[in-house]
């Protein structure tokens, strides 16, 4: 009897202390992510407004590229990116702390001067870098350090985008598709919610898009959603292939990093002169116009793929998530006319299809859509997400992402 009581006491003590440990680490990670994430979000907003008022600043993009490359060289973080953060979750590889200031400054410069990139990729790297530093400071064991890395990625994503549930599910799901780390659920939600509230107190507005004209469920509407999902899956493959092909081409013909990013900046300037400034920066203003005004150019999704592929392949910093939302929204908006659907609704379904297709994260996509677009159309968003996930095959934005199970067997 005494042995049973002793075993139960030890069991309760272990789980109670584990609860306290992860509560504390989740809060610490969330507070840090909220503060730094808010500073990062406001910096991006500030330089975006500056670029909008002084559009000719894009002519300094090649020079800015040289500065970014020099920063990475100085911090000894050249060639380190989101894939390395994912590897840090799966292996004993450590994410260098100096990646945080490198990607912070590099992404701000990219947005200031008109590079076509997002900010969530930088958020994942910030989270991984700072979480790695905290893990070392607290001398966490390897498994605990891996969990904290996921918490850091989710927390920074949450702080910047204002989607705490989608953010922490994405951070857990994206590294190894099909293998869900349940041990990260509690600290993940603590860190993401904490970062969300801290960033909100620091005046970071969460991204929300109004989708009011949700159709009733019918066979015809479902068939139209399936068609959008098929188009989204196809375009997600095109986007991923374009990113990887452009990266190989740039590295093949411009082996020197300084020359590569300088040439890439010059190409973006030429493209902006030919096609306009809508495809520079993240493109949130264009996304907002689709959902608020229903206006979209039919060729916009292809041009955004081109601009983003050149920007990231050349070595400019940022991420692919906001461009993915841009591509999805413009594809859906362009398709809404011949499908007879509301522009905002069609755009939202297409965003779900693109995001799920390029990240292989259908569950995170569903939660993300729930937070971005509201619950009314969740059936359609979920349908678009899972269909695109299946049809996009093994394509991914992230070369280090691992599919634990086949999608077809």
List the helices and strands and how they pair.
Layout lengths: L1 H52 L7 H14 L7 H9 L8 H15 L6 H18 L4 H20 L2 H10 L2 E2 L7 H17 L17 H35 L3 H19 L8 H10 L6 H15 L6 H19 L3 H17 L2 H12 L4 H14 L10 E2 L6
Parallel strand pairs: 1-2
Question: Describe it for me?
Answer:
The chain has two domains: 2-201, Orthogonal Bundle (Clc chloride channel), CATH 1.10.3080; 219-403, Clc chloride channel (Orthogonal Bundle), CATH 1.10.3080.10. The radius of gyration is 21 Å and the shape is globular. With 409 residues, it is an all-alpha fold. 72% of the residues lie in helices and 1% in strands. It starts with a helix and ends in a 6-residue tail after the last strand. Strands 1-2 form a two-stranded parallel sheet. The model has no long low-confidence stretch (mean pLDDT 90). The chain contains 16 helices and two strands.
